[in-house]
Design a protein that fits this description.
The chain is α/β, with parallel strands linked by helices. The chain has one domain (about 30-180): Rossmann fold, CATH 3.40.50. Helix content is about 45%, strand content about 15%. Strands 3-2-4-5-1-6 form a six-stranded parallel sheet, sandwiched between helices. Strand 2 (about 60-65), helix 3 (about 75-80) and strand 3 (about 85-90) form a beta-alpha-beta unit. The protein starts with a helix and ends in a 20-residue tail after the last strand. It binds adenosine-5'-triphosphate and magnesium ion. It is found in: Cytoplasm. InterPro entries: CblAdoTrfase_CobA, Co_AT_N_dom, P-loop_NTPase.
């Protein structure tokens, strides 16, 4: 072995020992409350990635979309292949500036929350995505204290993913894992419209 190879090997052995000790120190197992927020693209995409991973483990998963309306998306078509492993509810009425009817938006969000409560109570469901719940909270269409208390009191083995910009501090406080998507660059700013297969 050359000197260089020997040095590399020694360094990697030390690194492995550090890594192994760190991993061995983490022993807790629990359902996570995960938040994807921030102005950049990827919040829902990352939630769908987790859903895919969970499906691969044979878990049952749920999706409740609080704002998005009924238009067809690639993700919804794709998960249809998993049959009863997926429960998917698109319950929004579109964006607030599209519906222009506050009472209707509030009613849609309340109904979506009731559906989410049902999925949280379903012990077969291991991962639940609450897409754009942050938007419903931001517009105060749902009671923040009630939502946070309910999420905190969830079954210990249930993973919940909440998406949407401007996550409320109380939700961030309650969460185990919070990722902020930053917008470095977005094609929308250059006049490129939402692309099939990438955005829907
Ligand atoms: P995606 O569903 O693509 O992961 P997202 O969940 O992070 O996006 P949303 O706030 O739900 O973002 O908005 C959805 C739509 O807005 C997507 O079509 C996305 O490409 C677009 N979008 C996201 N971030 C930006 C941005 N910084 N500028 C312009 N459009 C954006
Ligand atoms: Mg989204």
């Amino acid at each position: 072995m050359t000197d260089d190879a020997a040095r590399h090997r020694e360094k990697m052995e030390k690194r492995k020992a550090v890594q192994d000790a760190e991993v061995a120190g983490k022993t807790l197992e629990k359902g996570l409350l995960i938040v994807h927020t921030g102005p950049g693209k990827g919040k829902t995409t990352a939630a769908l990635g987790l859903m895919l991973r969970a499906l691969g483990r044979g878990w049952r998963v749920g999706m409740v979309q609080f704002i998005k309306g009924g238009w067809e998306t690639g993700e919804r078509k794709a998960v249809a292949a998993f049959g009863p492993q997926v429960t998917w509810h698109t319950l929004g009425e579109g964006f607030t500036w599209e519906t222009q009817d506050k009472a209707r938006d509030i009613a849609a969000c309340r109904h979506a929350w009731e559906v989410a409560l049902g999925l949280m109570a379903d012990e077969g469901v291991r991962l639940l995505v609450l897409d754009e719940l942050n938007i419903a909270l931001r517009y105060e269409y749902l009671d923040l204290a009630e939502v946070v208390a309910t999420l905190r009191a969830r079954r210990p083995d249930l993973h919940v993913v909440v998406t949407g910009r401007n996550a409320k501090p109380a939700l961030i406080e309650a969460a185990d894992l919070v990722t902020e998507m930053g917008s470095v660059k977005h094609h929308f700013a250059a006049g490129v419209k939402a692309q099939e297969g990438i955005e829907f």
